[in-house]
Write a structure and sequence with these properties.
336 residues; alpha/beta; Rossmann fold; 2 domains; 5-stranded parallel sheet; 9 helices; 24% strand; globular
């Protein structure tokens, strides 16, 4: 890459991912984290997106602290397609020169970030789990799991801007911090007939829509649950507590659950108020996806299991015996 005059670049930009008029939660989480980063860099938090009829997102974006909201509206940008979104977003970034660009590591975000970074000849750190500012250099320090999750690597980009990162949903908390926001509407010429890809139909299954990050209570099970049929115990407890159930990578590999319920490095990252880990030993790949939970309850027969090292409360016992007792207990307490 050609070395740039990095002093021309300023502000922290957060991509606002949206679908059917709704903002993805990870975008709001990133706005909250961006506020911390911007404070350390003495600059502003700005949001940006493209699409059709997107001004209505203004109120919610302002609630999470953005000072400016850069948008491009065009009917050709109504549904996500890589080429037109890449072109319009690359134009916005190149024109306004943000120092940092943060994008949610969703299916859309991962596709978009890679192609935009290539277009801009910028560096990109994927699936980041921590973001900090180096107090001396003011570079963005982007930390992610590597070598199958066995090591954590901190990556920085000293000579080029923008510094780009995709961040997994659930790593940070979305905290409202209302601000007076300015909308900056730009234009980018696009004609539908010039776009090769066409959107014929959007189809989603029930499992594909599952976002574990929306739940305050998650009951997760691993290989220690013994077999697929025992996952009914997870569902029963989750239903009783008003949450949902999830699984470890091993459970998915064994064919016991759909991968959309997987928590961990290769699954979803969650930050619930309560996370119950039943029959999960606590491999680093799984911990990367749930260690920021407010309260962690571990249930395992092995009192030396790594999960107990981060657990708020630990129960040494067979999950198949403990879970029904917890379900009964909570039904009594909640008078269900």
């Amino acid at each position: 890459m050609i070395k740039q005059n990095i002093h021309e670049y300023k502000n922290v930009w957060v991509f606002i991912e949206h679908d059917a008029g709704k903002i993805e939660l990870v975008s709001l989480q990133l706005l909250s984290k961006a506020k911390e980063i911007a404070r350390d860099l003495a600059c502003d938090v700005c949001a940006f997106t493209v699409g059709s009829d997107i001004k209505k997102l203004e109120k919610e974006v302002a609630e999470y602290g953005a000072k400016k909201f850069y948008i491009i509206e065009n009917p050709a940008l109504k549904d996500y397609r890589t080429e037109p979104w890449r072109a319009s977003i690359s134009y916005l970034i190149a024109k306004n020169k943000p120092a940092v660009v943060l994008i949610g590591a969703t299916a859309l975000g991962r596709d978009l970030a890679g192609t935009v970074a290539t277009e801009l000849s910028a560096g990109l750190t994927a699936d980041t789990t921590a973001l900090d500012i180096d107090p001396q250099t003011k570079n963005l320090l982007m930390t992610r799991p590597t070598f199958g999750g066995n090591l954590m690597a901190t990556i920085f980009c000293p000579d080029n801007r923008p510094q780009m990162s995709t961040v997994r949903p659930g790593v940070f908390e979305a905290i409202k911090n209302p601000s007076k926001m300015e909308i900056v509407e730009d234009k980018f010429e696009l004609k539908e007939e010039d776009i090769v890809k066409k959107m014929l139909e959007k189809v989603q299954t029930g499992e594909d829509k599952l976002n574990l990050g929306f739940y305050d209570i998650i009951v997760a099970g691993g290989k220690g649950m013994g077999k697929k049929e025992n996952f009914k115990l997870l569902e029963d407890l989750a239903d009783t507590m008003g949450g949902t159930w999830a699984v470890s990578r091993q459970a998915v590999q064994l064919g016991w659950a759909h991968h959309t319920r997987q928590v961990g490095q290769t699954g979803q990252t969650v930050h619930p108020k309560i996370y119950i880990a039943a029959g999960i030993s606590g491999a680093i790949q799984h911990l990367a996806g749930m260690k920021s939970s407010d309260i962690i309850v571990a249930v395992n027969t092995d009192d030396q299991a790594p999960i107990f090292e981060i657990a708020t409360y630990g129960i040494v016992g067979d999950a198949l015996e403990v879970l029904p007792k917890l379900t009964k207990l909570f039904k009594g307490k909640l008078k269900i």
